[in-house]
Amino acid sequence: MLEIKYKLSTNKIPPMEWDDYERIATEELKRLLEDKGDKEEEFQKFFENNSAFVPGGFDLDDGSGHMPHLAALISKPPLQGHFRRIPDFLWLSFYSGVVHPILIEIEAPNKKCFNADGSSSQEFNHALDQIKEWQVWLKEPAHEQIFKKHFELDSYWYFHSCDFIPKFLLIYGRRHEFAQSEKLKKLREQFSSANCKVRSYDGLKPSYKCKDCFTVRLTEQGYEAVGIMPTFKIYPSCAKDYSRIKNKEVVIQDNPILSKERKYFLIERFKYWDNWIATTEYGARGPFNGADWE
To answer: Looking at the DSSP assignment, which residues form a beta bridge with residue 222?
Structure first.
């Protein structure tokens, strides 16, 4: 039997319980929708701190059993093309031998989908056109390779044999605008397809599968953390991915929900895991127990 080479803490401080987190974060989102519905930037920050509310980490239907790349939602991902606007978020999800980059556009919740005569609004059309622009760009094989290289997917052997199928999500509007009109419901549904979905803010629920995710930004210096789920558990099997993310201590300290004790524990344990990856050769790391966490 192969020997486990890493050491788990003997003084584990458990994370926040999921039910407590879901209640607190859902109430916060409700307050934002009531008070800040015209301010897109407020929701950008909320999603950065609560990545579980952003669909797509485990595919758009939440059906994947694989952790998203780097266990992280990417905020404001820089695309290597000439676009009017970059996506607000990106998940790099994979499922049954397929890489699904899921490009996500959000708009201020109070923006309308439809005009008084039932036609789609200029703002809604503009958001849809932006997604179409990304779709067209990513259909080009050369652009696919640029994308993979930019987000460093080509450095992971298990992505080499995967198909590449981008998906798209627009988070836009409130349900009450069309809930009482079958005509408007049907009009809105026509904008969704197998690989492109439109969802209202009212339909967003946190995904339990994303309870252990960071939110990061890709900079010239690499990936930097901008948020962490309060329910986050450290898994030894993800230590290499964690080590590629800078700024972890800052976002842990800044998280308003994490307890003081859990913050200290996470900061100290990430120091251990980052050092373990840096000082232990790949072939000497031994096996990982998938049930191990901190």
So the answer is: 219
Output the CA torsion sign for 235, 240, 241, 242.
positive
What does the block give as tokens for 12? 């584990």
Kindly list the averaged pLDDT for each block of 10 residues, start to end, along the chain of length 294. 89 96 98 97 98 95 89 92 81 90 97 89 92 92 90 78 92 87 76 87 96 96 97 96 97 96 98 96 88 96
Which helix (H) or strand (E) segment holds residue 40: the answer is helix 40-49
Say how many CA atoms lie within 13 Å of 158 toward its Cβ. Answer: 10
Position 104 scores a pLDDT of: 97
Query: Are 166 and 92 contacting, i.e. CB atoms less than 8 angstroms apart?
Result: no
Q: How many Cβ atoms sit within 10 Å of the Cβ of residue 163?
A: 10
pLDDT of residue 194: 80
Direct distance between the N- and C-terminal alpha carbons of the chain, in angstroms, rounded to an integer: 23
Half-sphere exposure of 238 (CA within 13 A, CB side): 21
Give me 34's structure tokens. 């009531």
Residue with structure tokens 């700024």?
Answer: 247
Angle made by CA atoms 101, 104, 105, in degrees to the nearest 5 = 150
> Token pair of 33, please?
């929708």
Alpha-carbon dihedral 220, 164, 136, 196, rounded to 10 degrees: -100
Q: Dihedral sign, CA of 279, 283, 284, 286?
A: positive
Task: For tokens 């694989």, name the residue.
Answer: 66
* pLDDT (0 to 100) of residue 1: 61
- DSSP symbol at 210: G
Strand 214-219, strand 222-228: pairing: antiparallel
Rounded to an integer, what distance in angstroms lies between the CA atom of residue 212 and that of residue 111? Answer: 32
User: Taking Cα atoms as reference points, which of 153, 144, 46 lies closest to residue 91?
Assistant: 153
Please choose, from the candidates 261, 225, 204, 264, the residue with its C-alpha nearest in 3D space to the C-alpha of residue 49: 225
